[in-house]
């Protein structure tokens, strides 16, 4: 197989991995929170990163992850931005209407574009810009319903949008700057994220829900769902780092709305036409068409290119686990 064909296949595999794990964790968490009342989202995210930390320790002991080092200041900055993203999204969802929350999520694409233009000197062709607008239009039709906003909700959404966009940009930046792959980056960042969120989470969740996580009625089924959520989260965290490392934060955001379409479709399949109407169907058509157009436009010469580039990281060539004594980790 040619190098180009091989890369396309690996890109597709990375993206499918991200879609499957992301949609899976949404469905599990929906059952956990809506059915069993486990509404402690920040603490649950801390458990997700704790499970991811255990996974990285196991892989390192087996020799699948090399011992790598990131400057402490880089790790601290990443963890702060990532935690602001997690808490900001939770607070935004609580303080804003669903419609404004969805608008805030859609605004991450132009913010990610701005970061790439300013920090990476990225340039987009007209077709690439138009395709992004089509995606935004389609997903907006699908998801934006009632729109109301208040001052504190706007501040929460602003923090959530910028911190999430920065976190996703930082994943790509750190992998390229330090020539490390997704597994190595997770091994460096997951432990401090787990520790900080497990300390912060119970207090944040009590502030948001007025319920204590330690007072929750843990049944066998709810514990199994928490365990399943943590297991899927390992793949979700890893696949996010892989995809952003292979693509960019903008591409990750644009193609990420495919997960929104899948969640809406699965909601129709499993919940008897819940939320399905003409607007949703038309929005899906526009969104998918825009994603296809974006994939084509951004891959064309001049569709999306840097005027100044960071050093290319060998780990972007392949995806998979490679023994440390066989060379650098490939992602």
From TrEMBL:
Keywords tagged on the record: Membrane, Transmembrane, Transmembrane helix
GO molecular function: antiporter activity; UDP-galactose transmembrane transporter activity
InterPro entries: Sugar_P_trans_dom, TPT_transporter
Superkingdom per UniProt: Eukaryota
Any one GO biological process: transmembrane transport
PANTHER family in the record: SOLUTE CARRIER FAMILY 35
Protein's cellular compartments: Membrane
Presence of keyword DNA damage: no
Membrane protein topology class: Multi-pass membrane protein
Keyword Transmembrane attributed: yes
Gene Ontology cellular component annotations, sorted alphabetically: Golgi apparatus; membrane
TM annotation in the entry: 12-32, 38-63, 75-93, 130-148, 154-173, 216-238, 250-272, 278-297
Species the sequence originates in: Erythranthe guttata (Yellow monkey flower)
Sugar phosphate transporter domain segment(s): 20-294
Protein name: Sugar phosphate transporter domain-containing protein
């Amino acid at each position: 197989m040619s190098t180009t064909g091989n890369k396309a296949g690996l890109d597709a595999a990375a993206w499918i991995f991200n879609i499957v794990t992301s949609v899976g964790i949404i469905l599990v968490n929906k059952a956990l929170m809506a059915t069993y009342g486990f509404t402690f989202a920040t603490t649950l995210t801390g458990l997700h990163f704790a499970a991811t930390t255990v996974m990285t320790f196991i892989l390192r002991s087996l020799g699948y992850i090399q011992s790598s080092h990131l400057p402490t200041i880089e790790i601290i900055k990443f963890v702060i931005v990532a935690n602001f993203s997690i808490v900001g999204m939770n607070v935004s969802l609580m303080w804003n209407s669903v419609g404004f929350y969805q608008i805030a999520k859609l605004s991450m694409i132009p913010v990610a574009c701005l970061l790439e233009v300013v920090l990476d000197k990225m340039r987009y062709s007209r077709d690439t810009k138009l395709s992004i607008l089509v995606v935004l239009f389609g997903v907006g039709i699908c998801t934006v319903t009632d729109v109301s906003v208040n001052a504190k909700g706007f501040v929460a959404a602003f923090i959530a949008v910028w911190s999430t966009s920065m976190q996703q940009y930082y994943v790509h930046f750190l992998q390229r700057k330090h020539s490390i792959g997704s597994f190595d980056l997770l091994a460096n960042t997951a432990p401090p994220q787990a520790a900080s969120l497990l300390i912060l989470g119970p207090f944040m969740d009590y502030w948001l829900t007025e319920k204590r996580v330690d007072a929750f009625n843990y049944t066998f089924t709810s514990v199994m769902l928490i365990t399943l959520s943590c297991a899927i989260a390992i793949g979700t965290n890893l696949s996010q780092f892989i995809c952003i490392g292979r693509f960019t934060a903008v591409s990750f955001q644009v193609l990420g709305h495919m997960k929104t379409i899948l969640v809406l479709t699965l909601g129709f399949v499993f919940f008897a036409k819940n939320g399905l109407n003409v607007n949703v169907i038309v929005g899906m058509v526009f969104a998918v068409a825009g994603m296809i157009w974006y994939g084509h436009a951004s891959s064309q010469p001049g569709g999306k290119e840097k005027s100044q580039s960071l050093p290319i990281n060998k780990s972007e060539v392949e995806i998979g686990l490679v023994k440390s004594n066989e060379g650098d980790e490939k992602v």
